[in-house]
Amino acid sequence: MKTISFTTSQFVTIDYELASPVYRAVAAFLDVVFLLIYLLIASYFISSNLLDLDMNSFQNRWSLLSIFLLRLPWLLYSPVIEYLTNGRSLGKLIMGIRVVKSNGETAGLREYFTRWIFRIVDIWVGGFGFLALLVAGTTEKRQRIGDIMADTVVIKVKDTQIYSLRDVLSIKNSDNHVPTYPNVIRFSDEDMLLIKNTILRVQRYPNQSNKDFAIQLADETARLIGLAETPPKRMEFLKMVLQDYVVLTR
Fold it and tell me: What is the reported pLDDT for 207?
């Protein structure tokens, strides 16, 4: 499982799982299915409204309607709908994935159209999607050529790692809990969210960089609440600080 880390404006680092090539291929297939259904309905609508016209009017009206109701939606479906829905086509929505910029920000119209233009290479020139699957499966951020050129990535968003204050308050119901570190009231909600996200990151991704950050965070937390030294079990210390904050501030 490959992940990517984004840092919020509150300096909280959040990990997202990168969408696999299989997820992206299924989402693309679903988009094609939806488009075909739309085109069938639109074609029937056009035909039923042109039956009573003479030949010249029929040809002129058919040309205009086919451009606006058939050709343009087929061509522009992907960039337009992703722009309007912040990176989710219908297929991506069902699969729980989303296009974002590689720094975590919402992509703009330029990024969506860049990805769309390079579909010609990724999908049509590249063996009906084989090249896109190959490149996305081998690059570090699972990017196809269009993503690389637009500086975008596709992430899974069903299991989002954004936590709210409600998550902090629901950690534990501790009506009889006696706080160990009363000085935690000096912290803010954002500080506690940082501590909680750090704990969850270490639990989910116990690599050395996450552990080192948790150690530094525990040392700084201990210093700020006036402890002479950090308790040896730093993760338990951070959990206790979090629990004390909930009890003292709710």
Answer: 84
